[in-house]
Amino acid sequence: MGKKVTVVGAGFYGSTTAQRLAEYDIFDTVVLTDIIDGKPAGLALDMNQSRPIEGFETKVVGVTTGPNGEGYEAIEGSDVVVVTAGLPRKPGMSRMDLLEVNAKIVRQVAENIAKYAPNAVVIVVSNPVDEMTALAQLATQFPKNRVFGQAGVLDTARFTNSIAETLAVPVKSVKALTLGSHGDTMVPVPSRCTVDGKPLSDLLPAEKIEELVVRTRNGGAEVVALLKTGSAYYAPSAAAARMAKAVVEDSGEVLPVCAWVDGEYGISGVYLGVEAQIGAEGIKKVVEDKLTDTEIAGLKEAAEAVRAKQADVASL
Length: 316
Ligand code: APR
Prior knowledge:
Elements: E1 4-8, H1 12-24, E2 29-34, H2 39-49, H3 51-54, E3 59-64, E4 80-83, H4 99-116, E5 121-124, H5 129-140, E6 147-149, H6 152-167, E7 174-175, E8 178-180, E9 186-188, E10 194-195, E11 198-199, H7 200-203, H8 206-217, H9 219-227, H10 234-248, E12 254-262, E13 268-279, E14 282-287, H11 293-312
Parallel strand pairs: 1-2, 1-4, 2-3, 4-5, 5-6
Antiparallel strand pairs: 7-10, 8-9, 10-11, 12-13, 13-14
The protein binds adenosine-5-diphosphoribose.
The site of adenosine-5-diphosphoribose (APR) has 30 residues, from helix 1, strand 2 and helix 4.
């Protein structure tokens, strides 16, 4: 059977994700939805008109959904649903400032996913992502392995890009990793960073590595401050599309994602950025690897920071 993916939210993040997914040419259909009249249909038409030039056959279908779930029939049979609906931050805002407003949106979207695409794997990107992922699981009541969030692939890419620029090497020479929350308690993992197989600590002094760690943690805010309206979407959409691809191809790739943690690193009962093997059922398993004591402490701190907020979303 042909594969089908839905992207909910046709803003900057959602539309670029839909475009990337369509250009992979591995789906029959990419459905793009939004609450704005005509916008998803217009974007879908525009993307379909790029097919002869870019050379892909995937069809993009744009649908406007209503307050009572009108239009959601279009997502039926989706293998994956990527949730990008919600407000982006403005300069000076933290992702957490979006909690209440985006919780209402994500809850409503998740309830419709549960109703119309009950077998889908759900990838959440709306911010604050650690909390919105927990909320989407709660509102869909899907098994926890079938709901996960995008953060680590993006944060790792930002870390990788900074390392490559600093050392003037190709990005493909760099292996990096970022775990923890998608916020102040993000845990870039220098001990797992290498350049052409050499440990990063052999190539850069500790203060420079710390500078790159801090820049990674503020990566989203740096873009927001420059844009002045809206937040990043090129690298974020690349990350989300890549994750959806790993699901439909049942690739078994290990990627850093916001996944339900149940005992790994001595942490339980929370959605947190960890490495996980991705496949058709979503998270196949969380992969625990060797980290330094400081990195493990950072991960535990992140878990406690998001745990309380994730409990709060139940009432939002
Ligand atoms: N259902 C579907 N779409 C919705 C809903 C809803 N209930 N509510 C809002 N939207 C749509 C908006 O109409 C808008 O088109 O979500 C879209 C959001 O688009 P942008 O404002 O361009 O924001 P974007 O940059 O795409 O970011 C989306 O991703 O990175 C996060 O923090 C970011 O939470 C934000 C999300």
